[in-house]
Amino acid sequence: MTDTVPSPDIAEVATPADALDPRLDPAAVDALLARVRREVEDGLSPAVQVAIALDGEVVVEAGYGAPLESRFLGFSTTKALVAAAIWRLLDAGEVDLQASAATYVPEFATNGKDVVTVEHLLTHTGGFPWAPLGPGRWETREGRREAFSRWRLTLDPGGAYVYHPTAGHWVLGEILAEVTGMDHADAIEELVTAPLGLPRLLGIAHDQQDGMVAAVGVGEAPTAQEMEAQFGVAVDLAELIPPDVAINALLTLNDPDARAIGVPGGGGCFRARDLALLYQGLVRNPGGLWSEEVLVEGTRRVRMDLPDVWGVPAHRALGLVIAGDDGFADRRGFGRATSPRAFGHNGAGGQLAFADPDSGLSVGFLTAGMDQHLIREGKRGIAIASLAVSVLAPT
Known about the structure:
It contains 13 helices and twelve strands.
């Protein structure tokens, strides 16, 4: 296993201007690629990739700092894989949204958690956002389930939305394993990525990890004064979560053992094209992989709209986020140019993954620079997402 060593001299564009799809605006594509390239030029990331797909094909693809075949940690973009696999089981009648998660994973029933449903897990309303699970227990199903038995609720299930970075998806992963009889990463490959013609994206064996770009921390957390100027609330993020704790938790996923396990809430290993084509699959549904009913619930209907910590309605479907028409699409990670029907799930550090069914475009953006300045990271995401969905030529 050999990781890719980024170099600012590496720039690969798979779709040069003279070979662009005629439906695209070359000037708009150039603007997007220039903005993406700036992340490496300005020292905010050792390497980045971007891809846009349309009608089931990648129409724009570029990478800076590392070859195009390099893979990046997608962090919470991984959650779309888990959701899509659970949707397959919903369609098959093998999982019930309203059933207790403990129906499938009995060890989870302890300490009052028997009231947590599968829907709660998919909408981040399970009430145990910071339940711990890491090296030493996450390597085996027995270790994971023993950890579940120790977890306690800190919120009323269904009563509040607090994003669960990994805990809820560990339980969803065990539901996949219990129902299918396979490891959760194998189940996702069989149910989702293989049928879509994608490579294995979660649970990458040690001898298959060549070309991974390790994530690194960059920048510093914004000050309380900067937070107040941006959001109207003087929040000292360093007091809430010490920066070294937050970034070190994320960088744990660089470990080859973690990549091999396939942390279901954030351990996916992607190229930008993989994310763009995954979302093409959700837009186009080749071979009727999912029923229309489950796609409505997963990508179109808002099932949970409780406010997040900033007071913004969460606008969550079953596992994904919907852009919406309430003026908060940019705060949900979709930029300012997507349609209200856009859906997706971004990841820590500014990873972008979404589709806009009105235009048919889907977008993947990956960076190895985990910018701790959340305001700068957020503005970058808005800019890149907005430019990406604006590449179609005027009609």
